[in-house]
Amino acid sequence: MLVCLIDFIPIELYTPLFYYFNFILVILLFAKNFSKVQLQYSSKTGVFIVIIILLYIGLRPLDKGYMGDTGAYLKVFNKFADGSISTFYENEYGFMLLMKYSALYLNEVFFFLICSFIYVFLHYLVAKKLFQEYWYFGFIVLVSSFSFWAYGTNGIRNGLGAAILLYAFTFDNNKIWAISIAILAVFFHKSMLLPVLAYILTFIYNTRVSYLRVWFLCIPLSLIAGGSFEILFASLGFGDERISYLTDGNVNGDEFAYSGFRWDFLLYSASAVYAGWYFIVKKNFDDKLYHRLFNVYLLSNAFWILVIRANFSNRFAYLSWFMMGVIIIYPFLKKQMLFNQTRKAAIVLLFYFMFTFLLNVVLA
Question: Which end of the chain is more exposed for a tag (fewer CB within 10 A), N or C?
Fold first, then answer.
């Protein structure tokens, strides 16, 4: 019944409706004062919101040309189901096994619902573990991220890998668990190898400002010799099919295809850099996990800056952007450092979401 209800929504309105729903959630949070009563209310209603988002993504219409790579995943699923293939997504065994055994015992609706469950539920767990009583606020920040919807419905493997990696970060006090879960993320999408390696590096070297200097250095390097870095990384064969984007043209007519140095995306990325710098350097926010996450973000984003001219540069950017919500909002929800801090956090959320709304709805 629920499948029919969601399928009844006009396909061309399905994605915009999600963003309008997200807009309402952001405005409601913006209007609250975050008293203890409000926190309790948000926690109770928040679970209901999580379920709505999970079902809305998981029960979306399939194979109608409006959900990005959903149709491509559906074709592979059907090939597993009819036995015409026995393996696919080489070296991404986590996702392959999930699809393969889902195809053996379930239909395509349940497969995409399972993917949505993993994706949304892990974001919920991340918010719960990191932000405790403020988890609902943190969850809405994650949902309001620029790429949240796209990687729940289009780049599904990447989205699942990123969600698993975010969850791994919450085990920072247990290195074995954290690194093990982080490696699992790579088996869902090979591109997660970049932030995973950056994460492991921070256990060896995790200073306050060294990686920030690296990030700034990559901007002039990219401006001067960006093409050379694209050729270098392509020759090394790092990651996955993204490497073809370094050298191929816009073969798919993607809206984020090559268009030179993306100053707009750089400024967007810099918002998280500024947040991290402000709280760590200016406000002396001493939180080991936050320092680590900020450094992982800087290293991953620095890689994207070096290849910023590449075709589909947003797909490289996502290797750091999936962390942006946490980087920006974490200090607000962990320690009192500013006057009227919760109100300022709500303002930050509003501006953070407006970028998402502008690019995905207004300018879409």
Answer: N
**How many domains does the chain contain in total?**
2
- Using a 10 angstrom Cβ sphere, with 0-12 exposed, 13-18 middle and 19 or more buried, the burial of residue 106 is middle
Domain check: are 169 and 232 in the same one? no
- pTM above the 0.85 mark? yes
Looking at the structure, tell me whether residues 75 and 217 fall in a common domain: no
Distance of CA 308 to the CA centre of its chain: 18
**Pick from 28, 14, 38: nearest CA to 350:** 28
- For Cα atoms 294, 299, 300, give the angle at the middle one, nearest 5 degrees: 95
Q: What tens digit of pLDDT does each residue of 161-190 get?
A: 999 999 999 998 999 999 999 999 999 999
Separation of CA 161 from chain center: 9
Inter-residue contact 258 to 285 (CB < 8 Å): no
Phi, psi of 155 (to 5 degrees): -85, 70
Q: Which residue segment(s) compose the domain that 217 sits in?
A: 190-322
Q: Is 245:311 a contact under the CB 8 Å cutoff? A: yes
Give 285-338 pLDDT, tens digit per residue. 999 999 999 999 999 999 999 888 776 677 788 999 999 999 999 999 999 999
Buried b (16+ CB within 10 A) or exposed e, 78-92: eebbeeeeeeebeeb
Q: Which residues contact 276 (CB under 8 A, 6 or more apart)?
A: 212, 290, 294, 297, 298, 327
Give me the long-range contacts of 67-70 (CB less than 8 A, separation at least 24): 67/14, 67/15, 67/153, 67/154, 68/150, 68/153, 68/154, 68/155, 69/154, 69/155, 69/156, 70/112, 70/153, 70/154, 70/156
- Count, in order, helices (H) and strands (E) of the chain: 18, 0
Structure tokens at 234: 């392509």
